[in-house]
UniProtKB/TrEMBL annotation, chain A:
The keyword Nucleus is annotated on this UniProt entry: yes
Assembly and binders: Component of the 20S core complex of the 26S proteasome. The 26S proteasome is composed of a core protease (CP), known as the 20S proteasome, capped at one or both ends by the 19S regulatory particle (RP/PA700). The 20S proteasome core is composed of 28 subunits that are arranged in four stacked rings, resulting in a barrel-shaped structure. The two end rings are each formed by seven alpha subunits, and the two central rings are each formed by seven beta subunits. The catalytic chamber with the active sites is on the inside of the barrel. Component of the proteasome complex.
Entry protein name: Proteasome subunit beta
Keywords associated with the record: Cytoplasm, Nucleus, Proteasome
Pfam families registered for this protein in UniProt: Proteasome
Function field: Component of the proteasome, a multicatalytic proteinase complex which is characterized by its ability to cleave peptides with Arg, Phe, Tyr, Leu, and Glu adjacent to the leaving group at neutral or slightly basic pH. The proteasome has an ATP-dependent proteolytic activity.
Nucleus recorded as keyword: yes
Organism ancestry: Eukaryota, Viridiplantae, Streptophyta, Embryophyta, Tracheophyta
Family named by the database record: Belongs to the peptidase T1B family.
Main subcellular localisation: cytoplasm
UniProtKB/TrEMBL annotation, chain B:
Subcellular location as annotated: Cytoplasm; Nucleus
Protein name (database record): Proteasome subunit alpha type
GO BP term (any one): ubiquitin-dependent protein catabolic process
Signal sequence interval, chain numbering: none
């Protein structure tokens, strides 16, 4: 007698891709706006990006119900922090909080693949990338979601130094200008849309810098 | 109210039907430094007097932001006030999380009152020794409530609690009919004048008072010291030796009055009327 398998899953994958790139004094966070289930499209206009604090923006793909719950949970924790400390959480603090929150549900995880972007305490861009249970790392750029396998190698090609042995060790920040980074994001999503069926419709780009927050949209292929 | 055989714990009634411990708790509120609240149709203003224990120490925080639409000013045991503020913040966050909308002020004060009532009916607890002026805005308009240690709460157009609050209440009683249609600035001006009434001679300076506002399109926030000082100067509200009836006419002598006030009161010993617990 073979082991019984569940015929109902508490999870679903709503697809989509998220990318973030950190610069010297800015951070770009982007995600497509398509929400799918199976081979169907639920909506073409769903935002996967959430502003958690003054200088922290999170983009998450995966199961959007879990993503929504996670965003609400973090927003509530941020309010408590503000009451207690009289200031907004810094991006590194939010990064640690997100990690702890994810691990808290280690045995019934949030099906959320997150990428957190923002400005650190010195005003430099920072990107943190996560797995579903909270393992995280500060990096210069990252991609998550259904198109991540298509996007990440391209970002490595463009942004990663050729060999860590030749050049002195780079810090977590990539040497791009803000406009170049936004342009790279648009290129990368256009390509991912071509081959990933779950990525498309519209691209939402959020740029965080010393002047504040800016939002931009770009149309993507709708097929 | 003197020590008697029915006041040892809160679960003992007196033959006259009084719970002395609860009444003593309300005494603690009267001993704290003053807090004042007033509301119009669109705004609510809270103001309080900050009395530091000595020149060396800072003053205690008496106004707390509870949520974007609710704030509270306390008088009495500030530690109890802090704990209750934390409870209120937590309730607001939980309500927003569940219903994605702000907690109506009336609900919050009922929860607070019920929490206070519990402490009047358990032998192992004591009543909270703090009075709260809850200022908030919700769908039904602007509200000001007073929650007392007994578990009672009342809604007010304007109110004052703490030491020498009677002076402020007298001023407010004369003027409250105009408050409903007051502008935001007039409301703040009236609050500052009411605070001045409780100071009885001392100069009104931004360093000894705190003002907070919440209104339509304006989240609850405490005004910073510079803004308050500018408002005091603009309204030319200065300390006057007499004068519950003093109206702030534009007079060209704010400097002279300010100097007199400063020398008289700055080095004064901590006020006899202020309880050691509340500063």
């Amino acid at each position: 007698m073979t082991k019984q398998q569940a015929n109902w899953s508490p999870y679903d994958n709503n697809g989509g891709s998220c990318v973030a790139i950190a610069g010297a004094d800015y951070c770009v966070i982007a995600a497509d706006t398509r929400m799918s289930t199976g081979y169907s499209i639920l909506t073409r206009e769903y935002s996967k990006i959430c502003k958690l604090a003054e200088k922290s923006v999170m983009a998450s793909s995966g199961f959007q119900a879990d993503v929504k719950a996670l965003q609400k949970h973090l927003a509530a924790r941020h309010l408590i922090y503000q009451h207690q400390h009289n200031k907004h959480m810094s991006c590194p603090a939010m990064a640690q909080l997100l990690s702890n929150t994810l691990y808290y549900k280690r045995f019934f995880p949030y099906y959320a693949f997150n990428v957190l972007g923002g400005l650190d305490s010195e005003g430099k861009g920072c990107v943190y990338t996560y797995d579903a249970v909270g393992s995280y790392e500060r990096v210069g750029y990252s991609a998550q979601g259904s198109g991540s396998t298509l996007i990440m190698p391209f970002l490595d090609n463009q942004l990663k130094s050729p060999s860590p042995l030749l050049l002195p060790a780079q810090d977590a920040v990539t040497p791009l200008s803000e406009l170049e980074a936004v342009d790279l994001i648009k290129t990368v999503f256009a390509s991912a849309t071509e081959r990933d069926i779950y990525t498309g419709d519209k691209l939402e780009i959020v740029v965080l810098n010393a002047d504040g927050i800016r939002r931009e949209y770009m149309e993507l292929r709708k097929d | 109210m003197f020590r008697n055989q029915y006041d040892t714990d809160v679960t003992t009634w007196s033959p006259a039907g009084r719970l002395f411990q609860v009444e003593y708790a309300m005494e603690a509120v009267k001993q704290g430094s003053a807090a004042i609240g007033l509301r119009s149709k669109t705004h609510v203003v809270l103001a309080c007097v900050n009395k530091a224990n000595s020149e060396l120490s800072s003053h205690q925080k008496k106004i707390f932001k509870v949520d974007d639409h609710i704030g509270v000013a306390i008088a009495g045991l500030t530690a109890d006030g802090r704990v209750l503020s934390r409870y209120m913040r937590s309730e607001c966050i939980n309500y927003s999380f569940t219903y994605e909308s702000p907690l109506p002020v009336g609900r919050l004060v009922v929860q607070l009152a019920d929490k206070a009532q519990v402490c009047t009916q358990r032998s192992w607890k004591r009543p909270y020794g703090v009075g709260l002026l809850v200022a908030g805005l919700d769908e039904s308009g602007a509200h000001l409530y007073y929650n007392c240690p007994s578990g009672n709460y009342f809604e007010y157009q304007a109110f004052a609690i703490g030491s020498r609050s009677q002076a402020a209440k007298t001023y407010l009683e004369r003027r409250f009919a105009n408050f409903a249609d007051s502008s935001r600035d007039d409301l703040i001006k009236d609050a500052l004048i009411a605070v001045r009434e409780t100071l009885q001679g001392e100069t009104l300076k931004s360093s000894i008072c705190t003002v907070a506002v919440v209104g339509v399109g304006e989240a609850f926030h405490v005004l910073d010291q510079d803004t308050v000082q500018q408002l005091i100067d603009a309204f030319e509200i200065v300390g006057e030796p007499e004068g519950p009836a003093a109206e702030p006419e534009p007079e060209p002598e704010p400097d002279a009055a300010a100097e007199e006030g400063t020398t008289a009161d700055q080095g004064a010993a901590p006020d006899q009327g202020v309880a050691p617990m509340d500063i």
